């Protein structure tokens, strides 16, 4: 039996195999996965008795044999290999099994912004001018994907440690007096930039930024510019809103200029948030609705996001079912609902039928009191987000870890309530890892991010693994999700470029010291304005009923009144 192949490195699950009429084994490679195009075809002898139906043995033979082909045999010159991560434990994703596949002592080969090879051969020959990074003993994983955040608010750091959501709107939101009085346009820029850099430092390479700094024309563009200057991959979703001094027509014009100035290959792409528009949509008088549909298409906006709460929270046209009724969805444009803690069965069905995603932000939802009841039921259509990095953790590792244990606790509780002892975990550490990586890419309709595969974007995070909290690891997924922290991240790459190297942020638009000093000045000034909150409203937006909650305390109940 002969092997016909046009690929140097072979991943199980990335090729198709069949035996042709001449009893030859033919390996067909997806063109997007070919590592080195325009290769000469090689015929490799393979023992007939070893073939049969055991394709795993064929792949093992194929990989080993193709690695023996010297570079001088290529018809074309060597590809422009830019970087190689050599000898690490690589967390790839196998499409065939829908599981993480761990490759020990493997190498990741990059050409510019793409991964062109993942090979178990640590001695892979590469061009002399390639940047080869030794990652022996380290864990190489995909960059984390944060599907919901408001970066412009980063400067509020530590304000509102005991805040509830009903108080947030009048105190610190885009509609608050604090935002409109305290911020300058440059504050929006420096606050957003620092937020992105915080995320990059902690391994977040992709974001969906719900950008609602929308109260005046001069405040819009600085947030978009900060996204571009950060070096992160950002779907920047602007919240178009109607303000007396900044009406809808002008808002659309500003977003139009941003969209027109963005090239398709840019790391930052414009999208839209529908929060402020949804309440104006009426299927009976739908001029505004039709105008919005046309703008999304004309401006080639790359994503749609919105908050949705439901349950006891006031809401307007923001549920998955209502978005379908408004005909705002399409196959090309991703739609992400943030929080969605009280999804009905009908709304869960709408998610799956239309491939909508929910961004679950566990620390935010538990901190502010949104609630999160239905998230555990929609893991197949959910990813993770952060929401507000100014009042709790700014890294996605914390969110993934918290959500993993929350789902476990909720499902364990259901068994324990019936008097049954749990016999298995309801949510594995691998599933928690995928929520923070691949699911985020799928939420953005970007299957090439949040995974390490041939053809995927080179958004990569390398954990050192030598710290006291990680030392002795054997299971790399557990090491990352249950033991690591941002300080364990040695390198971060976005689009094949280092953004963190040797534990330090690199390739910054401005020196970190300048960013730090400007951020500190803005934080001190803005927080002075924000330090005294306004009274809590009696009803949220005039309709949401407030209620007492049971208070927990370290003091004995009798002492709580003194």
From TrEMBL:
Amidohydrolase-related domain location: 139-497
GO MF terms, alphabetically ordered: deaminase activity; metal ion binding
Transmembrane segment boundaries: none
A Pfam family that the UniProt record links to this protein: Amidohydro_1
This protein's record includes keyword Hydrolase: yes
Gene Ontology terms: cellular component: cytosol
Alphabetical list of Gene3D superfamilies matching this protein: Metal-dependent hydrolases, Urease, subunit C, domain 1
UniProt name for this protein: Chlorohydrolase family protein, putative
Source species of the chain: Talaromyces stipitatus (strain ATCC 10500 / CBS 375.48 / QM 6759 / NRRL 1006) (Penicillium stipitatum)
């Amino acid at each position: 039996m002969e092997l016909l192949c046009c690929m140097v490195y072979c991943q199980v699950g990335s090729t198709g195999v069949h035996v042709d009429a001449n009893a030859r084994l033919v390996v067909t490679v997806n063109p997007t996965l070919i590592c080195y195009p325009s290769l000469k075809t090689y015929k490799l002898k393979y023992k007939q008795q070893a073939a049969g139906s055991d394709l795993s043995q064929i792949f093992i033979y194929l990989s080993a044999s193709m690695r023996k082909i010297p570079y001088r045999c290529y018809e074309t010159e060597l590809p422009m290999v830019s970087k190689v991560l050599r000898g690490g434990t690589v967390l790839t994703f196998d499409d065939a099994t829908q599981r993480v596949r761990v490759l020990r002592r493997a190498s990741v080969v990059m050409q510019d912004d793409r991964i062109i090879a993942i090979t178990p051969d640590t001695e892979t020959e590469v061009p002399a001018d390639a940047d080869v990074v030794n990652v022996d003993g380290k864990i190489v994983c995909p960059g984390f994907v944060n599907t919901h955040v408001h970066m412009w608010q980063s400067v509020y750091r530590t304000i509102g440690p005991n805040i509830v959501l009903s108080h947030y709107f009048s105190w610190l939101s885009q509609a608050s007096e604090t935002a409109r009085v305290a911020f300058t346009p440059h504050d929006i820029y420096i606050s957003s930039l620092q937020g992105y850099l915080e995320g990059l430092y902690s391994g977040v390479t992709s974001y969906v930024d719900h950008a609602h700094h929308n109260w005046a024309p001069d405040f819009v563009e600085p947030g978009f510019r900060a996204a571009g200057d950060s070096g992160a991959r950002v779907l920047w979703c602007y919240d178009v809103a109607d303000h007396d001094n900044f009406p809808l027509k002008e808002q659309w014009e500003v977003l139009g200029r941003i969209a027109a100035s963005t090239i398709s290959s840019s790391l930052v792409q414009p999208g839209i948030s529908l929060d402020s528009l949804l309440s104006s949509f009426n299927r009976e008088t739908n001029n505004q609705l039709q105008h919005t549909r046309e703008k999304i298409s004309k401006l080639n906006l790359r994503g749609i996001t919105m908050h949705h709460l439901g349950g006891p929270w006031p809401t307007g046209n923001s549920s998955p079912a209502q978005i379908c009724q408004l005909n705002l969805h399409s196959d090309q444009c991703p739609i992400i609902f943030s929080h969605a803690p009280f999804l009905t069965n009908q709304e869960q069905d709408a998610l799956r039928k239309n491939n909508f995603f929910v961004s679950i932000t566990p620390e935010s939802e538990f901190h502010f009191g949104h609630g999160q009841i239905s998230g555990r039921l929609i893991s197949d259509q959910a990813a993770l987000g952060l929401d507000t990095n100014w009042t709790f953790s700014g890294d996605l590792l914390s969110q993934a870890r918290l959500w993993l244990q929350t789902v476990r606790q909720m499902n364990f509780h259901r068994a324990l309530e019936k008097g049954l002892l749990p016999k298995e975990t309801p949510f594995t550490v691998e599933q928690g890892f995928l929520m923070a990586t691949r699911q985020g890419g799928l939420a953005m309709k970007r299957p090439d991010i949040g995974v390490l595969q041939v053809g995927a974007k080179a958004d990569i995070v390398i954990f050192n693994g030598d710290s006291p909290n990680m030392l002795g690891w054997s299971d790399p997924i557990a090491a990352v999700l249950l033991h690591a922290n941002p300080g364990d991240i040695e390198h971060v790459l976005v689009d094949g470029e280092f953004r963190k190297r040797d534990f330090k942020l690199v390739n910054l638009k401005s020196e970190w010291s300048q960013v730090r000093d400007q951020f500190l000045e803005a934080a001190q000034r803005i927080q002075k304005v924000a330090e005294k909150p306004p009274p809590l409203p009696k009803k949220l937006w005039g309709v949401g009923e407030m209620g007492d909650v049971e208070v927990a305390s370290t003091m004995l109940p009798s002492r709580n009144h003194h």
